[in-house]
Amino acid sequence: MPTITKPTTKTRKDLTSLSDVTTAELQGWLDLALKLKAEKKAGKAHSHLAGKNLAMIFQKSSTRTRVSFEIAMRQLGGGALFLSNNDMQLGRGETISDTAQVLSRYCDGIMARVFAHSDITTLAKYASVPVINGLSDYSHPCQAVADYQTILEHKKKLKGLTLAYVGDGNNVAHSLLFGGAKLGVSVTIVCPQGYEPQKSVVDQCVVDGKETGARVLVSNDTAAVKGADVIYTDVWASMGQEKEHAERLRIFKDYQINAGLMAKTGKKDALFMHCLPAHRGEEVTDEVVDSPNSVVFDEAENRLHAQKAILVSLMGR
Ligand code: CP
Ligand code: NVA
Question: Of 28, 77, 107, 202, which is most buried with the most CB atoms under 10 A?
Fold first, then answer.
């Protein structure tokens, strides 16, 4: 069995949010993700989780999270079970706490995509095995780890960079804020009034950023993207907000990422990022998603490598 670097500085059971992850842990995951990616490309097997199984609960749709976690477990020598909320007793009223305790008797880890973030924290409280947040209404930590891996690969550094997230101050924005503050990446959120990220998230990131030199700025003016090294966006209506879609199209229309907005950075080499799925023609135009500056498919690929690092660090002991 190959030796692996243990990326944690303390014993972590779960990954519910990047809010309580240390800079050292995040850097450890990024290092391990890059190592596992290089090994995979070189055809070297790394069965760190041989014989281990991950339960994957989905209360919402997914392409990337479902496939990347399942393939990650297979490549690490283990297995994964796709559990749709509709087909589980969870969907018929069994409690999250009972579900957590039952799954802990069969599986070595639980990944869950949920509506309410409290479902993730309840799972983590009652499960004896690690719980990983595969997206909640509050955060999407695995996405942000993969995104910072992608930025590191393209820009060869993280500290000192500025990422401008333009759009809804949602789950993805929260995780990018938490991660940026810990990694020394300044994050500017540009959004319509009333769609800012949660104040508690911004406040924590201002404090965390003092340690790393990362600044946090929230603005309603797209001119605030000036100087950004990365432009990031996400859908204007997240899963669960379908009824607000038409209203949000109207409210967010001036925040679309198009060639004009990319030019406002003043940087020809500014990266374009999106967690995907993209609603082309809404939050971003085809010309930007398909431009040479776009790294959206690298981000999608890095979900696999980043999550392998997280799985090994949480389930590999
Ligand atoms: N980015 C992301 O989480 O994609 P899916 O919704 O397809 O899993
Ligand atoms: N903010 C989006 C992200 C999808 C990956 C949502 O929650 O639907």
Answer: 107
What is the domain partition of the chain in residue ranges?
A: 18-140+303-315, 143-300
Whole-structure pTM value: 0.96
Our CA angle for 288, 292, 293, nearest 5°, is 65
Based on DSSP, count helices (H) and strands (E) in the chain, helices before strands.
Answer: 11, 9
Do 18-140+303-315 and 143-300 show the same overall fold?
A: yes
As given in the structure block, the two tokens for residue 153 are 């690969």
Contact 55, 103 (CB under 8 A): yes
Q: Is the CB of 239 under 6 A from ligand 2?
A: yes
Over residues 130-144, the pLDDT tens digits come to 999 999 999 999 999
Q: Which DSSP letter does residue 7 get?
A: -
Nearest atom in ligand 1 to 65's CA: 8
Selected catalytic residue, list 143, 149, 204, 256: 143
What is the 137 CA–ligand 2 centroid distance (Å)?
A: 8
pLDDT tens figures, 280-292:
999 999 999 999 9
Fold topology of 143-300: Rossmann fold (3.40.50)
- Selecting among 48, 117, 140, 305, the annotated active-site residue is 140
Q: Which one of 57, 61, 62, 273 would you pick to mutate in the ligand 1 pocket, going by the greatest count of ligand atoms within 8 A of its CB?
A: 62
Find the radius of gyration of the CA atoms of the chain.
19
